[in-house]
Design brief:
Chain lengths: 959, 189
């Protein structure tokens, strides 16, 4: 039921009552039956469930059906969860039941005979009297004969029971339960009579205590045993309902209740009411109930409500209307009103500390009071107070330490054992032992020594929480929400060298013993002697899923390779924190490792003077790596970071959050580890020369046969004797003389034809393959064109070359470079583009390199490659035909005087050609025009535009 | 270890009142919810639930099969609630529409409004379907467990659940092409 279908996923899917069910193997009828089964019985097998989900993903009507059921279920569950009887239902009911022995008692009660010792001694006597009225002679005789011994036995039993209760502190007979330790000017209300509360006063059930300007401290006992302590804040009122139930009527009270307090039954809870507002059920130890009247908190904010603030353990807060039940853990506050309750994110430490210190200051007074309780109280309280000397949370914890599979409490206990049981750790373990605390098991063990603080932080994070070490007068605590950044050393994408070596060991294990992903991680971890911690969180199911395949293995030979394979399969990334590798989703890693970073750029500057212009370009480039249009750069990583760091395509999704500073010392920016890796990759690209892109057209250097190309098969046929050309896409027919090549190689013609049709060329084995552009030339990525070969020939022009290339590329290949930003950095030309663009740039660089042999420096800025010079010259020639042209569009282009005068290839958009070939152009005035002008005039008649692309002329629809 | 109903009944019959308290704890919410679904106000439902348990306590000695305590007490609840509904016949006239509404101007908590709406829809269902739904969504029992508790075939339980959910889907407009509401007469006896 947790397989959520992505919202909007179905918008384009088939719909309708008889929906085909997409490509899944279930029909809609079957799917609906399955949905009903799933909702009603939840007994679908995994395979069936997957089939159903597959169907639902493709079928709108079944999706609606399923969603409807889910919403209904949710609503029913929500409704039923709010239904409960009024508080104290059981007590009222039990009071309403006819007492045993009464005339209203049901027959079966009256027929009971001495079933239980204590109460039944009394009960049996009454029954006996009742039996007299029934007139059963035998029984009466029996009674007469045995009356005396039975009566004696009953008396002894009563006496023994009374003694037992007195000594064991049962509630009915218990010694005074509540003793005032320190009264200040407090008042006590007992049976309607008010008096000053004195030290050592004992409170009875139903008594209330009102504090004056000073706090009142109470010790709660049960017989000789200590239950806990209460500190009543100044100007507050507390009612003792009984020894385990209190009401805070005004102000605030701090309760410190022992977890192992004596209980009358296992189900007994310590409870505190803010009457009409909240009920606090305690399973932990220390907390505040503040009805917002006097001392703590904002009166305005909390008027009409209560604030529950937990220092230790967990308490369960119920609003009086029972509309909500909230678990509040240490370090959290919960605001409760009649309408419900909500957790607050406020910092509770100050609030706790203030009351806590008052309590601690007063607690020693408890010693010596009351006599029966003093020893136990001393013993208990000896543990309770906080250390007055700082505890070193930075002490080293030696490895190995088995933690995996233990609960947090058990894990802390193991730590405590290793560190000679410091009370701070025992207190922490106690905190995490409550029944309401998550029982999530730790997933990792310690394989390298690390500071205690770090171990606890990692343990907390492992179960989805956070850890806050305490200082003097403050207890350390675990929190429910993980802290933001991990403390200590900022995360890095690179492991320390020693860890690198450790991970480089062969790991032949096939993980036969591992049943879950968590176990595999722990296996790699222990083999390599490093600590790997995976954030299971949202992917918990994935981690805890039983591995279906016995003998499961991961590809790779070494621990590092296997770890890499595992991360890829989980789509996780890792960040190193000293010796710990933390594994999480890329976005989490980016969030947790977001930090100021600095990269030296000196390798780029080697042998070159500091050039402010290209430094500025580099800065702009890095800054521009931020994913556009997203406020949070992390999101972009989340979307794109499935590839590996070294993938060049990732460069465009790199993350730099905030401004980038660049100086001679280096590049400063802010990013996560992935962002840093991409910046690092970018910088490497700037240093390492990009390899040459293969010139596929060079494989077919023979001249093309004259004449129009009817379709691509004509070209493929011509190439067949040299190299196989295999189209992987459907190639259209090229009728009406759309493509006519002149003075071009077969390879060039094949290349331009393919490009003109929107496809590309690539080599596969010994064959040339025509395929999709992206398949042939890859996705746009950072491309680097080194210009060192030019600089080597003419060092004096080094600064000019980038400008020349950057100027010429958009001019020569407008279709491919018009919108490309070309930057010059460190004597290299950088742009974002595909391999085809890089290939064109490399060609141009080669042409320029050749030209440099003879080119005077002064002419560099106006230089054009020879093929373009030739086309320009051809188009500038005067047209030698008649002044007025009359013919079809295709006829003018392909059979007129123009055909003879044009010495270069002219391609026409095939669709436009089919449409306009027969268009009659009458008396087109071309008198005195050049070849270029005539071509323009003819193209305009078919609403086409003439562009020169490399060494071809291209007539395309105007846009 | 949790005692079974049968064990708790036996202990109650041997004089252990706490055991009966445990039985009450186990079943009170279901009985209370059934009363609310009958249209009673919260306080009345509470009283009626008390009455059900007092009657159960008094008649416990007559329960032959201790393991069938749940079925038995739901039966008592059915009688008590039916009697009360008859006694409060006026309630049928005014129905749940007369449930105390929050005065104009005072914000109505969504949860309260939703609860009333759902209870209103549940009131339209036959009693058997209400019981099955309650055990399903309040107690979280599977159809198999419900069948065991009620001593009925699993198919019957599933069928009731199916009809009830179908009806509610339409009632809440969660069903595609939901049309007019037809009371689930087919299941009514």
């Amino acid at each position: 039921m947790n397989d959520e279908v992505p919202p909007g996923f179905f918008s384009s899917g088939p719909s309708g009552p008889s929906g085909s069910g997409g490509n899944s193997s279930l029909s809609c009828e079957q799917a609906r039956r399955q949905i009903e089964r799933m909702i009603e019985d939840r007994d679908l097998k995994e395979v069936e469930r997957q089939l159903l989900l597959a169907h639902v993903r493709c079928c709108m009507s079944c999706k609606v059906e399923l969603e409807g059921y889910r919403r209904l279920e949710l609503r029913l569950k929500e409704t039923f969860s709010t239904l409960d009887t009024a508080p104290h239902f059981n007590e009222r009911l039990m009071a309403a039941l006819p007492p045993p022995g009464s005339s209203e008692s049901p027959e079966w009660v009256q027929s009971l005979r001495g079933a239980e010792p204590g109460e039944n001694a009394e009960r049996s006597g009454k029954i006996r009297v009742a039996a007299t009225t029934v007139s059963e002679p035998e029984r009466r005789t029996f009674s007469r004969v045995y009356w005396l011994p039975i009566a004696l036995t009953a008396l002894i039993a009563i006496a023994l029971t009374a003694t037992f209760f007195r000594t064991h502190g049962r509630e009915s007979e218990s010694p005074p339960p509540i003793v005032a330790n320190f009264s200040g000017d407090a008042r006590r209300m007992h049976k309607g009579i008010e008096s000053a509360l004195k030290r050592m006063d004992v409170l009875q059930n139903g008594d209330s205590v009102s504090s004056g300007d000073a706090p009142v401290n109470l010790t709660l006992t049960s017989g000789p045993q200590l239950i806990g302590a209460v500190m009543l804040a100044p100007r507050s009122k507390l009612v003792a309902v009984n020894r385990h139930r209190f009401e805070v009527h005004e102000g605030a009270a701090y309760f410190h209740i022992r977890k192992d307090r004596p209980k009358a039954s296992a189900n007994e809870h310590f409870e505190v009411d803010a009457p009409g507002i909240a009920n606090v059920r305690v399973t932990g130890t220390a907390f505040i109930v503040d009805v917002g009247a006097t001392v703590i908190g904002s009166k305005e904010l909390f008027a009409g409500g209560a604030l529950i603030c937990v220092e230790e353990g967990v308490v369960e807060v119920r609003s009086a209307s029972l509309s909500s039940v909230t678990q509040v853990v240490a370090g959290k506050e919960c605001r409760v009103t009649q309408a419900g309750s909500s957790l607050l994110e406020s910092d509770v430490k100050a609030r706790l500390l203030k009351l806590q210190q008052s309590v601690l200051a007063a607690l020693p007074v408890a010693r010596g009071t009351p006599p029966a309780a003093s020893k136990q109280a001393d013993a208990a309280l000896a543990v309770t107070p906080l250390s007055t000397v700082p505890f070193s949370w930075d002490m080293q914890v030696d490895a190995p330490l088995e933690l995996a599979g233990k609960t947090l409490a058990e894990g802390i206990e193991s730590l405590a054992e290793k560190l000679k049981r410091p009370p701070e750790l025992l207190s922490l373990a106690e905190q995490m032992r409550g029944p309401l605390v998550s029982r999530t098991e730790l997933s990792f063990s310690l394989h390298r020594a690390m500071p205690l603080r770090a171990v606890l932080a990692w343990m907390a994070r492992d179960v989805g929480g956070g850890f806050e070490p305490g200082g003097i007068g403050q207890r350390a605590c675990f929190t429910t929400a993980p802290t933001g950044n991990l403390r200590g050393v900022a995360g890095s994408g690179v492991p320390p060298d020693e860890i690198k070596k450790a991970l480089d060991v062969p790991l032949e294990d096939r993980f036969d013993q591992c049943k879950t992903v968590t176990e595999i991680i722990e296996r790699i971890s222990s083999s390599a002697g490093v600590t790997l911690i995976a954030e299971r969180g949202a992917a918990r199911e994935e981690f805890e899923r039983k591995l279906a395949e016995p003998g499961f293995n991961l590809p790779g030979h070494t621990a590092a390779e296997k770890l890499d394979a595992l991360l890829k399969s989980l789509r996780f990334n890792g960040a190193w924190y000293e010796h710990v590798l933390f594994l999480a989703s890329p976005s989490r890693i980016e969030n947790l490792t977001l930090t100021e970073r600095s990269v030296p750029v000196s390798p780029l500057l080697i042998g070159q003077p500091l050039n402010p212009r290209w430094l500025a370009d580099l800065k702009e480039l890095v800054q521009g790596l931020r994913y556009p249009g997203l406020h949070s750069p992390v999101k972009s990583i989340h979307v794109r970071a499935e590839a590996v760091f070294s993938d060049r395509a990732l460069a465009e999704t790199a993350v730099c959050s905030g401004p980038v500073e660049l100086s001679a010392e280096g590049l400063k920016y802010r990013s996560g580890v992935l962002g840093a890796a991409v910046v690092s990759a970018l910088l490497s690209e700037l240093i390492v020369d990009a390899p040459m892109v293969a010139e596929i057209s060079g494989l077919l250097s023979q001249p093309i046969a004259p004449g129009p190309v009817s379709d691509m098969n004509a070209l493929i046929g011509q190439a067949a004797h040299a190299v196989a050309v295999k189209p992987k896409v459907r190639l259209p027919a090229l009728s009406h003389q759309a493509f006519v090549f002149k003075g071009m190689s077969l390879g060039g013609a094949l290349e331009w034809s393919t490009w003109a049709l929107g496809y590309g060329l690539k080599l596969e084995g010994n064959a040339i393959v025509i395929a999709d552009t992206a398949e042939c030339y890859g996705a746009p990525a950072l491309q680097v064109l080194p210009l060192a070969s030019l600089t080597a020939r003419k060092p004096a022009l080094a600064d000019e070359f980038p400008n020349v290339i950057a100027r010429l590329l958009p001019q020569l290949y407008p279709a491919y470079f018009a919108e490309t930003r070309l930057r010059s950095i460190g004597g290299k030309l950088i742009f974002r583009g595909d391999k085809r663009q890089l290939q064109l740039a490399q060609r141009l660089r080669s042409d320029l390199e050749l030209a440099l042999e003879t080119l005077p420096a002064a002419k560099l800025s106006s230089w054009l490659p020879p093929f373009r010079q030739s086309i320009n010259a051809n188009l500038a020639e005067p047209f030698q035909g008649t002044g007025k042209l009359t013919r079809s569009f295709a006829g003018l282009l392909r059979q007129s005087e123009l055909k003879h005068q044009l010495r270069c290839s002219v391609l026409v958009d095939p669709v436009a050609m089919r449409e306009h070939a027969a268009d009659q152009i009458i008396d087109l005035d071309v008198s005195g025009g050049s070849v270029g002008k005539v071509l323009d005039a003819i193209a305009a008649k078919a609403r086409l535009k003439v562009t020169i692309e490399g060494d071809i002329i291209w007539l395309r629809p105007q846009r | 270890m949790a005692w079974s109903d049968a064990e708790l009944v036996s202990r109650t019959l041997s004089g252990d009142r706490e055991a009966f308290g445990k039985l009450v704890d186990r079943h009170r919410r279901t009985i209370f919810a059934l009363a609310l679904q009958r249209g009673f106000q919260s306080a009345e439902a509470d009283d009626l639930a008390q009455e059900v348990f007092v009657k159960a306590y008094q008649g416990l000695g007559r329960l032959q099969d201790h393991a069938s305590f749940a079925r038995w007490i739901y039966g008592i609840a059915g009688h008590v609630l039916a009697d009360a509904a008859r006694a409060y016949k006026r309630r049928d006239e005014v129905g749940l529409d007369q449930a105390p509404e929050i005065e104009a101007g005072e914000p109505v908590p969504n949860t309260a409004r939703d609860t009333t709406e759902v209870l209103r829809a549940l009131a339209e269902l036959p009693e058997e379907q209400r019981l099955v739904l309650t055990l399903r969504y309040l107690e979280g029992f599977s159809p198999k467990e419900i069948a065991e508790r009620l001593g009925q075939p699993r198919g019957t339980v599933r069928s009731r659940l199916h009809h009830a959910l179908n009806y509610l889907q339409t009632a809440f407009g969660f069903k595609a092409g939901a049309g007019s509401l037809a009371a689930p007469e087919a299941e009514r006896k």
